[in-house]
């Protein structure tokens, strides 16, 4: 893993969205100047087009230079590097403005800059460009840091969520395996393999994406272990409405914690147990996942659902939103003796 201190701190302007933002900002300045009610002059269409061409050319030149110098500037302390970047953009703007003003003077062409003095046009363009670039760099810097913090928070929550694979589950599983070794060694071996896969996934969470198929297989392994402990009290029904996007990248350990909540907060608290229904379907470019299970009323229990399963659901919802954007949705509610948790994510 790369050391964060070795990563360039200057915002990345080489990406197309950033370049488009810089060009749009330059054009916005031209529009504001043209619409300013100062009464000093009237802008013709030719003036507006000339000013737009100059602003876009200047913005493109500044953006390309900052993109090329990003690595070198990032070797400096942030304050010194920022000051040098802003000063460099001012010099570039001054040189470009001087060239444009000189060309219009030599060609004796009608333009928005013809009636403005050389130094006023050159220095004014340089100052305005430097100020706008300083504001843009600040905005992109804060945006990049916020995005990095979101990624860090998502990874930290994933790690914290996996730490919640409760010790008593491990102890109960090991005791169960020990009791099966002599009575049914084949089943004991299968339980050991399932437990190994489960904790391997927990230790690897946060290192990369999982897939829908891997998430379902991991949930099956967890339910296989719990079925050995709960016996007939735990019934599982999978409803797979094919075709399904089995290779769809997903955040790791999204489905298993929901299934674990269904067992811990639902089936294990009911004397007669019940059936967990896990339904998967893909409709109109959206993947729908539902975990439905009987559960006691969370308002009458000593441990409210919002303190147990609610934490896992909030963490999963946060990671899904980070991975898929606002199109991802997750809801959970108890009604008439059943708890249902629904996940909806877009399928590219």
Can you walk me through this structure?
The chain has helices at 16-35, 45-68, 70-74, 78-107, 118-163, 167-183, 185-204, 212-230, 255-265, 309-324, and strands at 210-211, 234-240, 249-250, 274-283, 286-294, 329-335, 338-346. With 348 residues, the chain is α+β, with helices and mostly antiparallel strands. The strands form 2 sheets. A 5-stranded mixed β-sheet has the order 2-4-5-7-6. 28% of the residues are buried.
Q: Main traits of this protein?
A:
348 residues, 5-stranded mixed sheet
Write a brief caption for the model.
Helices cover 60% and strands 13% of the residues. It has ten helices and seven strands. Helix 5 (118-163) runs antiparallel to helix 10, helix 6 (167-183) packs antiparallel against helix 7 and helix 7 packs across helix 8.
Q: Average pLDDT across residues? A: 80
State the secondary-structure class: alpha+beta
State the separation between the terminal residues, measured CA to CA.
Answer: 29 Å
Helical residues, percent: 55-70%
How much β-strand is present in the residues? 5-15%
Strand arrangement across the biggest beta sheet: 2-4-5-7-6
SSE ordering: HHHHHHHEHEEHEEHEE
Q: Which residues sit in consecutive blocks of at least 5 with pLDDT less than 50?
A: 1-5, 302-308
């Amino acid at each position: 893993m790369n050391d964060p201190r070795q990563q360039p701190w200057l915002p990345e302007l080489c990406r197309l969205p950033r370049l488009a933002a810089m060009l749009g900002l330059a054009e916005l300045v031209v529009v504001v100047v043209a619409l300013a009610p100062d009464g000093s002059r009237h802008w013709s269409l030719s003036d507006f087009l000339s000013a737009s061409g100059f602003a876009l050319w200047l913005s493109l030149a500044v953006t390309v230079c900052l993109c090329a110098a990003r690595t070198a500037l990032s070797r400096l302390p942030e304050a010194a590097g920022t000051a040098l970047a802003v000063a460099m953009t001012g010099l570039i703007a001054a040189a470009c403005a001087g060239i444009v003003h000189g060309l219009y003077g030599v060609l004796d062409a009608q333009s928005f800059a013809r009636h403005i003095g050389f130094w006023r046009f050159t220095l004014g363009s340089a100052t305005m460009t430097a100020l706008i670039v300083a504001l843009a760099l600040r905005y992109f810097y804060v945006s990049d840091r916020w995005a990095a913090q979101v990624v860090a928070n998502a990874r930290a929550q994933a790690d914290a969520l996996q730490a919640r694979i409760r010790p008593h589950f491990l102890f109960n599983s090991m005791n169960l395996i020990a009791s099966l070794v002599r009575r049914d060694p084949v089943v004991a071996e299968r339980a050991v393999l399932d437990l190994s896969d489960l904790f391997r996934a927990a230790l690897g969470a946060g290192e990369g994406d999982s897939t829908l198929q891997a998430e379902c297989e991991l949930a099956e392994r967890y339910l296989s272990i719990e079925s050995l402990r709960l016996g007939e009290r735990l019934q599982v029904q999978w409803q797979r409405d094919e075709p399904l996007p089995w290779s769809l990248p997903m955040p790791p350990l999204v489905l298993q914690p929901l299934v674990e909540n269904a067992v811990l907060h639902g089936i294990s608290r009911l004397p007669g147990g019940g059936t967990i229904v896990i339904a998967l379907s893909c409709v109109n470019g959206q993947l729908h996942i539902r975990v439905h299970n009987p559960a006691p009323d969370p308002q009458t229990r000593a441990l409210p659902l919002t303190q147990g399963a609610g934490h896992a659901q909030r963490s999963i919802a946060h990671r899904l939103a980070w991975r898929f954007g606002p199109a991802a949705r997750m809801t959970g509610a108890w009604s008439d003796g059943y708890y249902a948790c629904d996940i909806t994510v877009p399928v590219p």
